[in-house]
Amino acid sequence: MTLEKPPVWLFDLDNTLHDAALEVFPQISRNMNNWIASNLSQGSTRLSDAQADALRQVFWRRYGATLLGISQMPCDKATQFLKAAHCFDDLPSLIHAEKGLRRIFRKLPGKKILLTNSSVTYARQVLKILGLVPFFDNIISIEAMCLAGRYTPKPSRRFFWHLPAKLKVSPSRCILVEDDIRSLKAAKITGMKTVLVTQYLNRSFQSHHAYAHPGRKIASGRQSYVDTRIGSVRWLVRVNVVK
Predict the structure, then answer these.
(1) What's the helix, strand, coil split of the chain in %, to 5?
(2) How far apart are CA 159 and CA 220, in angstroms?
């Protein structure tokens, strides 16, 4: 593959590079619910687990991310919430990924950036567990997804419009590798290339952490905003994504 300029790969983390729906997402859901029950109760009565879970999903549906709902509260507790949500006693035991990822990343030409709605601490930990730290030039976590002082995480179209300028590259050089069609659609509108990873989609149906309505994230058939559809990131070296 000969290119005038190398591509810039934008990789999602959870349910793209590893199966987060199996154990990580359920734990994050519990962490979020515990924090909400303890910190968003009215008066001296602690919210029940069911009430906290319902409130979390209200935040997700209304704002697109639970963190955005938390950040709307009069007292900004977003940083505290984000830290609590990604607290694990034994994270390595929760990570499930296929073998051979290092070999694939070694073969991919171009710059690689992690683009995740998770915290930067969690993202670094997972990359280390996967053995992929040496292959990534940068991590853009949810803490860095801010415009005008407000969180604008994926799948915000405003975020994707500003991202190429932030990276100082043309949108046409960027390739977003994701499991969420909402982010792929937002990226495609800006002129980026898009790759849908489907391997963990069905399993993520069990997760209400990342998707209050998980069925909406799947593209049926070939959508105009999906340039390439693959089962696993291991297929990236077998298909001609960069055209």
Answers:
(1) 45, 15, 40
(2) 25
CB contact burial 231-242 (16+ within 10 A = b; e otherwise): ebbbbbeeeebb
Closest CA to 128 of 108, 154, 102: 102
Beta bridge partners of 64: none
Q: Answer whether 132's CB lies under 8 Å from 29's CB.
A: no
d(CA 78, CA 68): 8
**pLDDT tens-digit readout, 152-162:** 989 899 999 99
Residue 46 near residue 83, CB atoms below 8 Å: no
| DSSP H or E segment with residue 163 | helix 157-167
For 184-207, what is the mean pLDDT? Answer: 81
- Please give the Cα distance from 58 to 64 (Å, whole number): 10
pLDDT tens for each residue of 57-104: 888 777 777 888 888 765 578 888 999 999 999 999 999 999 999 999
Domain ranges of the chain: 8-20+95-237, 24-85
CATH fold of 8-20+95-237 reads: Rossmann fold (3.40.50)
Phi, psi dihedrals of residue 18, rounded to the nearest 5°: -155, 165
Q: Are 181 and 219 in contact (CB under 8 A)?
A: yes
